[in-house]
Amino acid sequence: MLGQRAAGVTGVHWTVEARDWAADATPGTVRAEVARQVRPGGIIVLHDAGPGSRTTPAALPGILTDLRARGLTVVPLRDLRGARPGTLRDMWHTLRGS
């Protein structure tokens, strides 16, 4: 398996887990989960492969409509203001709450 760095991929921690991969997930449950968890500046993880591939594409138009109706703007990660690469130390402090 090719490592993340070797593949040129930067990892990101998310704030919303839509559970689109769950066996009982439907487009409706995925949409509701995002609506329940999302806050301004949040990062939503959705899957376009594996189990999520059967629910995410159908849920996405509704998710986008809901976010825009709440006045939220959808942007790619590279355009998220204040985003910066983190370190393991940052993650440790976040987990510890310090």
Quick description:
The protein has 98 residues and is mainly alpha-helical.
Output the structural class: mainly alpha
Order of helices and strands: EHEHH
Report the average pLDDT across residues.
82
Strand order of the main beta sheet, please?
Answer: 1-2
CA-atom Rg in angstroms: 15 Å
Helix content, binned percent: 25-40%
CATH-derived topology: TIM Barrel
Q: How many distinct folded domains?
A: 1
Q: Span from first to last CA?
A: 34 Å
Number of strands: 2
Low-confidence stretches: none
Provide the CATH superfamily.
Glycoside hydrolase/deacetylase
Question: How does the overall form come out from the CA principal axes?
Answer: globular
CATH class category name: Alpha Beta
Percent strand equals under 5%
Question: How many helices?
Answer: 3
Largest sheet: 2 strands, parallel
Describe the structure.
This is NodB homology domain-containing protein. Residues 1-75 form the NodB homology domain. It comes from Deinococcus actinosclerus. This protein is mainly alpha-helical. The chain has one domain (16-96): Glycoside hydrolase/deacetylase (TIM Barrel), CATH 3.20.20. Helices cover 35% and strands 4% of the residues. It has three helices and two strands. The chain has helices spanning 27-37, 56-69, 88-96; strands spanning 16-17, 44-45. A two-stranded parallel ribbon has the order 1-2. Strand 1, helix 1 (27-37) and strand 2 (44-45) form a beta-alpha-beta unit. Helix 1 runs parallel beside helix 2. The chain is globular. The protein starts with 15 loop residues before the first strand and ends with a helix.
